[in-house]
Amino acid sequence: MLSTASMSRLLALTSLIPLVCAQFAARPLSAGPWFDGRVQGQALDYGQNDTSLDVETDVASIIDMRDVWTIAERRLNSIVYGRIAGGTSNEDTLHWNVDSYREVHLRPRLLRDITNASIAVNFSLYNGAGEEFPINASSPFFFAPSGSQGLVWPDGELATIGAAAEAGVVAAISSFSTVAYDVVGAAKSDNQTLWAQLYPTTMTRAEWLDWIKTRQEAGYSATVITLDVVSDPLESRNWRAGNEHATLDAPFLNIITWDDVQYLKDNSPLPIVLKGIQTYEDAVLARDIGVAAIYLSNHGNRAADGVQSPLEVLLEIRKNAPGLVDEIPIFIDGGIYTGTNALKAIALGAKMVGLGRPVQFALTMGQAGVKKMIDTLYYELHQQLQLVGGNSLDELDASYVNTLRLDAFIPTYSS
Ligand SMILES: *[C@@H]1O[C@H](CO)[C@@H](O)[C@H](O)[C@H]1NC(C)=O
Ligand SMILES: *[C@@H]1O[C@H](CO)[C@@H](O)[C@H](O)[C@H]1NC(C)=O
Ligand SMILES: *[C@@H]1O[C@H](CO)[C@@H](O)[C@H](O)[C@H]1NC(C)=O
Ligand SMILES: *[C@@H]1O[C@H](CO)[C@@H](O)[C@H](O)[C@H]1NC(C)=O
Ligand SMILES: *[C@@H]1O[C@H](CO)[C@@H](O)[C@H](O)[C@H]1NC(C)=O
After folding, report:
1. I need a surface site. Which of 15, 182, 237, 405 has the fewest CB within 10 A?
2. Cα 149 to Cα 358: distance, rounded to the nearest angstrom
């Protein structure tokens, strides 16, 4: 005989079964049409990485991100494609980053006048001394720092920032830019915002500060510090495609700690953005230190595999640190391949949404390709905002989304 307590526990568990079943039934096996469904290691029939292929026709054919993916597969050779497309280990996170957005659904409101709807973004970042660095962008999309763009297009970063200037969006430049940071800075338009990404490897605090000062002088207006690559992950697809492996005796070590973050926040002339936050605890620490913004990211699954999607991290923050999303600007990337996904993240409190692979893949068509890619996202987000009855992104809140299917799996932590 079961005791009454055991009975009610059993009943409580049983009531979860439909939710659990729904969760798994809803999860597609492959991550969707823009990820290749190919078995890793299969012989691939890619293009020749040939930038002389007709750009105009390809750019004109772009309707949405699927086309960008398909065109990139055709234009890149397997080495470069493998490097950009791949995640780490089993690539579970690569797929889940996108799939988790499918578990959240929009709740459109009707009969509102949405004729003046705008997706423009207007807020500021601050350095430790309280100096203001305004962000005035035509949309919340920004180019996530993503390195070695010269593999995709000659002087790739220059084409990328050219498109960002035309579109009025913020671009973050990777430490591993093919074009030197000061050359990129010199090519920047007056109306353009650039951020500089830093891997805090074996430098001293003084060297980090010097690094940041040189970026400020070169025209950058924030430093994005990447925290999530503390050693070289197993880049399965990249290595299988023929790129060089890392070895355990040559780790890529981030040696930064929270004390260093406090120091940088207090002393950096530029606002500090912490990239790679994946738990509510770290979001709280970053807010308490007072950095300019936090950036939820798992490096597009180029760091740890098997982690939560950034969207789940956002929900975890909402549940465990109520109010935090209004206290510090939150940026997010990972699976933002549609205006719809961007809208969902923004309704949940994200201020800006980052694009990594979309930029690299669009860059296979040079500046015109990147511009067309961002134009399609701009269109999609603008329309989606109107379709849910919104006039501005600031107006959106969690009442515009149903997140129950993910919420059911977000714990309340006892801290
Ligand atoms: C939209 O903008 C026009 C022109 O500024 C203005 O006359 C109109 O009242 C606005 N509509 C709404 C709903 O804000
Ligand atoms: C941006 O916001 C500031 C202060 O909130 C305001 O003064 C300014 O007019 C806004 N700029 C635009 C372009 O909306
Ligand atoms: C903000 O950007 C818009 C165009 O996107 C421009 O018209 C406006 O002058 C800018 N405002 C500031 C304060 O830079
Ligand atoms: C094509 O790919 C190779 C690597 O396989 C790279 O070294 C080269 O720079 C690429 N060419 C162009 C024009 O981007
Ligand atoms: C910024 O300046 C560039 C070059 O002067 C121009 O092409 C572009 O349209 C401007 N962007 C915006 C959003 O005003």
Report:
1. 15
2. 12
For ligand 1, say whether the CB of 115 is within 6 Å of any of its atoms: yes
Nearest to 119 by CA among 336, 345, 386, 335: 386
- CB atoms under 10 Å from CB of 61, counted, come to 12
- Residue whose tokens read 């379709």: 387
Q: Outline where DSSP puts E strands in 10-144.
A: 105-106, 121-126, 132-137, 141-143
From 189, 194, 375, the mutation candidate for ligand 5 (largest count of ligand atoms within 8 A of CB) is 189
Full-model pTM = 0.89
- Residue from 142, 169, 191, 374 whose mutation best tests the ligand 5 pocket (most atoms within 8 A of CB): 191
Q: How many CB atoms lie within 10 A of CB 278?
A: 22
3-state secondary structure of 335: coil
Counting ligand 4 atoms within 8 A of each CB, the residue from 151, 160, 365 with the most, and so the one to mutate, is 151
Residue 223, H or E segment: strand 223-226
Task: Kindly report, residue by residue over 242-295, the tens digit of the pLDDT.
Answer: 777 777 665 566 678 999 999 999 999 999 999 999 999 999 999 999 999 999
3-class secondary-structure state, position 294: strand
Residue nearest to atom 5 of ligand 5 (CA): 189
Ligand 4 centroid–CA 383 distance in Å is 37
Ligand 2 contact via 124 beta carbon (within 6 Å): no
